[in-house]
Structures are given as structure tokens and as C-alpha cells.
Amino acid sequence: MTLQTCYITSPSAPGFDVESTFQLIYIPRGEAAETSKAVTMVFTDRLAAYLAGVILSHLALTCVFLLATLAAVRWYIRDSYKVDGFSQKHVLITGCDSGFGNLLAKQLDRKGFQVMAACLTEKGAADLAAAASPRLKAFLLDVTDSSSIRKAVESVSREVGERGLWGLVNNAGRSTPIGPSEWMKLEDFTKVLDVNLLGVIDVTLQFLPLLKKARGRVVNVASILGRLSLTGGGYCLSKWGVEAFSDSLRREMQHFGINVSIIEPGFFKTNVTRIDLIDANLRRLWSRLPQDVKDSYGATYFDEYVKAQTFSMGLLCSPDISKVTRCMEHALTARFPRTRYAAGWDAKLFWIPLSYLPSFIADFIVTVLLPSPKQKM
């Protein structure tokens, strides 16, 4: 078998020639069978290699799929394991006058837990006690007052004895005032931080000895605004602080068998998101601003800002707060509680994914949602 190169020149246009090159294979008559056999072998080898590659790639994808499925099934089964002896476990919940804390107290009471519900007002405590079983104990607690917390520790210590405290749910919180940071004074920040962050820290530190006895659980209520700051004021700052405090506490307390979980609710209809309270606080902030600051924002800015807040709360806030309390309950009852719980479709599908994206994307979204000042650059 020999190869011979041939060149053919053909006119394609006046003044231009196209030269084509190709090879002729000359096969003597006696070698035809051997050549055919060689070509067949080459084709067979290449086909086998191709099929092997296809099979291996599909096998690899199948293995990945099976491993992912097995991991998901294992996670689901592990996530469903529960602790036992609910009736012997004491759980303290702060902020039980209304909202998440109030519903969780009733929920755990129905499960048979020994619930100690801390309320800020006498009316809140009385109403909750009337709606629950005699097993639930409602009492007054101001999380911003260390002496009030100490009294609660003494009372709870007598109640739980050597069993210790199984669960502490730091739920008490406030949102207002929120708004542009330039409208705030220092005390506007401290009012929120005292409840949402320093109160959480003080309550947790004072109850830690009782929690260590039971090798119990700490459940801290943060927010998606602890992942993504959308407004000025102390609320976002406080929730970022709760996230950081919870992370450090979890790593420290794991040596003592204490689990620390963070609840990250999206937007829900509670006192924290009541638009009438937000509106009243915004009007208070606006009314005390110097005239030159008001002028920089423009005469219509305030009304547009309130409208934007009202629209956002109406669009995003879910009335089903049990989505949050179910997360809290799981953190208290699961044998293997999660580190973080995202509660609500908006938290899971929008806000938390958004928090992982580049900052300019979140900046753009906030810019679209809120009005622009008159004297913007």
C-alpha cells in the first residue's frame, strides 16, 4: 500500500486559481484483504474506546446521583430523630406577650413540655396563662434589666432543680425605630440593641449554668436582616450581632454538650412589622430633623418612603407565623438540631441567596425599592 500526493489547480474566478491537495491510496491487489482487516481493527478499537468513554461518563453521573440521593435520604432520616421525655424538660422562652414567643409557648405546652414563658407585661402573662394548661408558668421579665434576669434565674433554678434547663429561646425583640441612619440619634440605636442583642447576651450568660446541667439547647431568633442589611437603625445591627454571638457561643458550648441554633425568619405579620408602629416612629424621626436635612431629602421623600415601607410589608409579610415556631420546635426537639433555620419562602428563596451574591446586586435592589433623595449626586 502506497500514498501518492496529487495537486489539482482549477479556475474559480478570472485571475485566481484554487489549488486542492489530496492523497490517493494505492493498494496492490494482494494486500487488499490485509488492509481491510487493519481498517476494521482500527475502527473497532476506536468504537470500543468511544463506547467505553460514554459508559464511564454515564456511570460517573449515575454514581454522583446515587450518592446525592443517599445523602439526602440520610439527612432526612437523621433530621427526623427526636429526643424523648418532653414532660421532664423545661424550656424558657422570652418575649411571650405576642407573636412567635406566644405561639411557641402554647405549641410546646401542648407537646407536654414544662414551659416557662417570660412576658414583658402583666396582661400578656395573664392572657397566655389563661390560654394554656396549668403546667405553663408565665412570669414577668425585662431582658434589658440584669436584676430582673437574676430574679428569673433564681426562680427557674428552684423549678428545674438538678435536671437543669433544657431549652432557652431568646425571642424577645423590637424593630423600631427603623429608617435612614441620618435621621437617628444614638439613643435610637441603643433602644433596639439593648433588647435584641445585649438582652440576648445577658439572658444567655446568666442561664448558662442551668443549661450546662441539662446539656440543653439555646435557640436565638435572628432575622434575614442579620444576613442582609436593608434599612438603617439598630435592628439590622442587632441581628448581625445575634448571628455572631450565636456562632461563637455554639463553638464554645459544643464541648459541654449544648447545641446553639439560629432562627432566621423572613417577613411575617407580627408587632415587629406592624406598619402603624413603623409609620409613627418614622414621623417622629422626620419631625425632629433640622430643616436643612429635610430639604436635602425633599418635601415628598417622607411620604414616598412610608409608601415604600407599606408596600414592602404588605407584599412580603406572611400571616402564618407557625412556619417560624415549627423551626424553633425542631431546634428544641430534634436529636440533631440544625445550626440555622430559614423560615419563610422569602428567606429561603430570595433574601438568603441574595446575601451570597455580590454586594452591588443587593445595593441595586434596595435602591429600586426605596425612593431617592432630592439632592442625590
List the helices and strands and how they pair.
Blueprint: E1 2-13, E2 16-26, H1 32-80, E3 90-93, H2 99-111, E4 114-119, H3 122-131, E5 137-140, H4 146-160, E6 167-170, H5 186-214, E7 217-221, H6 234-253, E8 259-265, H7 275-287, H8 291-297, H9 301-316, H10 322-333, E9 340-343, H11 345-356, H12 359-369
Parallel strand pairs: 3-4, 3-6, 4-5, 6-7, 7-8, 8-9
Antiparallel strand pairs: 1-2
How is the largest sheet built, in terms of strand order? 5-4-3-6-7-8-9
Radius of gyration, in angstroms, nearest whole number:
33 Å
Helix content: 40-55%
CATH topology of the largest domain: Rossmann fold
CATH class of the largest domain: Alpha Beta
Shape: flat
CATH architecture type of the largest domain:
3-Layer(aba) Sandwich
Number of strands: 9
Which class do the helix and strand fractions yield? alpha/beta
Pfam family, one: adh_short
InterPro entries: NAD(P)-bd_dom_sf, SDR_fam
Keywords: Membrane, Oxidoreductase, Transmembrane, Transmembrane helix
Family: Belongs to the short-chain dehydrogenases/reductases (SDR) family.
Word description of this protein:
- It is a single chain.
- With 377 residues, this protein is α/β, with parallel strands linked by helices.
- The chain has 2 domains: 77 residues, no CATH class; 282 residues, NAD(P)-binding Rossmann-like Domain (Rossmann fold, 3-Layer(aba) Sandwich), CATH 3.40.50.
- The chain is 55% helix and 15% strand.
- The protein is built from 12 helices and 9 strands.
- The strands form 2 sheets. A 7-stranded parallel beta sheet has the order 5-4-3-6-7-8-9, sandwiched between helices. The protein has a two-stranded antiparallel sheet with strand order 1-2.
- Helix 2 crosses helix 10, helix 5 runs parallel beside helix 6 and helix 7 runs antiparallel to helix 9.
- The protein is flat and about 100 Å long.
- The termini are far apart.
- The model has no long low-confidence stretch (mean pLDDT 88).
